[in-house]
């Protein structure tokens, strides 16, 4: 087994797989109201191709965790079967899902039966009017039902990912944390990153990790968690002495690139060695032209070798990736 190592000593063991670039929300920080031009169907990996490439990563390259993302992965019709087939790989990876939870109430039990280990749900507010303003859809009740179904199905710990936006929901951090604590969900606040399709991100308008922490500490006592952070992106705090926790992911203001253990595979079969990479490596073309698993693995190793030391957001020459977050996968 050959590790997915880069020139700086980092080894990728966590694979994020985008199953579709489509989404049924239109979050203002992600895409325009009219949506985007979706990938043509023939360019998207088939279920068999997804499972084969994940198998190469797990069985030949040392990947231990697989996270299915989108767009919205619940829009992928073959999702349950893909999860079941990936869990049958040897060694079986931990398999999770990042979702907006709109369809999770209908699918949580089936996903759990297929072997899904846990879910991360994107939820920026628990106020219906703010939810509708952010997502351009009045679907908060469906997200809440999806979260409840995930918990009932044993897909835990159920994690909630939230982005705060100045003048929109930045006054709601304590409220969202209380809502999650009361229901046993693990909340993680994430700094807004320059991954919007409109390229309208403004660092000066971003709610920083320090500001998030200050807002929370106005209502709670936060104590840095004892357990080592390792490669986890979130800095964890116990809330009011525990047992509840909250995490803050300072992707922009306090980057953790030096400990990154992630690699990404897009819905059309491109390897991205960094979320902010401006270059990709095409596995789909090689796979469809008859490459062996060994050849696919070698291409993947080469792709990882070129990973840069950091995302470079602070560099004056930084340019956003051509693809927005919805087309990259979380």
Can you offer a commentary on this structure?
By secondary structure, this protein is of the alpha/beta class. The chain has a single domain (4-328), classed as Aldolase class I (TIM Barrel, Alpha-Beta Barrel), CATH 3.20.20.70. 30% of the residues lie in helices and 17% in strands. The protein contains ten helices and 14 strands. It has helices spanning 47-61, 79-87, 104-114, 128-135, 140-152, 173-183, 209-217, 284-288, 293-305, 325-328, and strands at 4-5, 11-12, 14-18, 65-69, 94-99, 118-122, 159-163, 186-190, 222-224, 235-239, 245-249, 262-265, 270-272, 281-282. It has a twelve-stranded mixed β-sheet. A two-stranded antiparallel sheet has the order 1-2. Helix 1 (47-61) runs parallel beside helix 2 (79-87) and helix 2 (79-87) packs parallel to helix 3. It starts with a strand and ends with a helix. The model has no long low-confidence stretch (mean pLDDT 92).
Query: How many helices?
Result: 10
Give helix % range. Answer: 25-40%
Overall pLDDT metric:
92
Span between termini: 26 Å
**CATH architecture descriptor text:** Alpha-Beta Barrel
Largest sheet: 12 strands, mixed
Main β-sheet, spatial strand arrangement = 9-10-11-8-7-6-5-4-3-12-13-14
Beta-strand proportion: 15-25%
**What is the string of SSEs from the N terminus onward?**
EEEHEHEHEHHEHEHEEEEEEHHH
Q: Describe the global form.
A: globular
In terms of structural class, how would the helical and strand content be classed?
alpha/beta
Uncertain spans = none
* CATH superfamily label: Aldolase class I
The whole-angstrom Rg is: 19 Å
Write down how many β-strands occur, each being a DSSP E stretch of 2 or more residues: 14
The third-level CATH topology is: TIM Barrel
* CATH top level label: Alpha Beta
């Amino acid at each position: 087994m050959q590790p997915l190592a880069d020139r700086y000593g980092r080894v990728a063991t966590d694979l994020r797989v985008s199953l579709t670039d489509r989404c049924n929300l239109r979050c203002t920080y992600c895409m325009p109201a009219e949506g985007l031009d979706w990938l043509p169907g023939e360019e998207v990996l088939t279920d068999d191709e997804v499972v084969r490439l994940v198998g190469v990563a797990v069985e030949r390259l040392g990947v231990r965790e697989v996270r299915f993302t989108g767009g919205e992965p619940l829009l992928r019709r073959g999702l349950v079967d893909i999860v079941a087939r990936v869990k049958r790989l040897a060694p079986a990876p931990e398999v999770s899902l990042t979702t907006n939870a709109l369809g999770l109430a209908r699918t949580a039990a089936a996903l759990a039966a297929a072997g899904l280990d846990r879910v991360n749900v994107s939820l920026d507010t628990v106020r219906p009017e703010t939810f509708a303003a952010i997502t351009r859809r009045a679907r908060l009740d469906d997200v809440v039902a999806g979260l409840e179904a995930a918990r009932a199905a044993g897909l835990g710990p159920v994690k909630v990912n939230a982005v705060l936006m100045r003048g929109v929901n930045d006054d709601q951090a304590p409220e969202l944390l209380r809502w999650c604590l009361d229901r046993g969900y693990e909340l993680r606040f994430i700094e807004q990153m320059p991954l919007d399709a409109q390229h309208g991100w403004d660092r000066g308008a971003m709610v920083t990790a320090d500001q998030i922490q200050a807002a929370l500490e106005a209502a709670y006592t936060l104590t840095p968690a004892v357990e080592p952070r390792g490669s986890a992106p979130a800095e964890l705090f116990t809330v009011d002495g525990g047992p509840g926790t909250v995490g803050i992911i300072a992707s922009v203001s306090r980057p953790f690139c030096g400990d990154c253990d992630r690699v990404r595979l897009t819905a059309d079969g491109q390897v991205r060695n960094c979320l902010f990479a401006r270059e990709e490596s095409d596995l789909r073309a090689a796979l469809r032209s008859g490459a062996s698993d060994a050849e696919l693995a070698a291409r993947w190793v080469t792709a990882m070798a070129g990973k840069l030391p950091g995302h470079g957001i602070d560099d004056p020459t930084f340019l956003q990736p051509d693809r927005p977050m919805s087309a990259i996968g979380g």
